Amino acid sequence: MPPNLYDPTGIAGTTGTTGTTGTTDTTDTTDTTDITRRTDAAPDLRFVNVFSAGSNGGNPAPVVLDADHLSADEMKAIAARYGHESAFVCRAADPRHAFRLRFFVPAHEMEMCGHATLGAMWLLRQAARWTTPKATVETLSGIVDVRFDDETKRIDVGQPRGIVEPINDPSLIGSVCEVLRISHDDLAPIGIVNARTSRTKTLIPLKSVDVLDALAPRLPGVAALCDALDSTGLYPFAVECARPLELHARQFPRASGYPEDAATGIAAAATLYGAIHYGLLRDGDSTMRVYQGFAMGRPSCIRVALRDPFDSSAGCWISGAVEFTLLASLA
What we know:
The chain is an alpha+beta fold. Helix content is 19%, strand content 31%. The protein has helices at residues 72-82, 114-126, 170-180, 209-213, 222-229, 265-278; strands spanning 44-50, 59-65, 86-90, 99-104, 109-110, 134-139, 142-149, 154-159, 163-166, 193-196, 200-205, 233-241, 246-249, 252-253, 287-292, 300-308, 311-319, 322-324. It has an 18-stranded mixed sheet that branches. Helix 3 packs antiparallel against helix 5.
């Protein structure tokens, strides 16, 4: 396992961990640059990899600390330069909150980004800029709760209660099959739904992981289909293990500036509520894992858990592995 890897799932590597606790050696031997507060005008840009479940896995995120001096156009340009969802740490408008986070993809600003939030808070923890067990963070989607477990070293990012709405329109279901290049027989017989915590994702249950991995969607049709569905991305998935619940998924976003996402925390949170709707999360179970990015060669794992195992309306937590990484500029 690379240095500075925070892995609460216990699956990302083989050395330097204690298994299921996810405790790792956080001594950085590869990047000695100070990540404490900077006062100059140059962006304090860091790169993290989040939700990794193996070699070359996870979803990278550029993170800029002390980003208040950057304009929205400059933030978007950084996201475009590296081709990934990017987080920008700013001063909170309300002193009761720890930070304000802004998120950009190459095409636009986003209300919320799960993996970039986790990566940013991990960096702030590394820099001793966040030292309390809990914090609240301002985002365009609202106030986000974050917590740190000192025993397991796990950071959890909170999401509100999910809302699930079935898609019953035969023409929309037909369009989903057409864009994904699948037949109706490839769909699992539990129905397509829109689910959301911070952003709406269209959950498309498939009969098998093999069908999921073989998807070769008509990418030019994704945006129009998402608009028709009032969704920000198609999230086909398949059940790999019923108990404990483990799913494999892929995301094809509506308009992020790239065709597929290696790990999508917000979609995984929405899928937890989809799993409850489908009856996949059985009584007494409150946690599941979503594996994503395998078809891209970027294996990822997102842990999702109800905040209160007995009250799904309380919302959920998302967590996963974090590590320093390097990203090449696309410019």
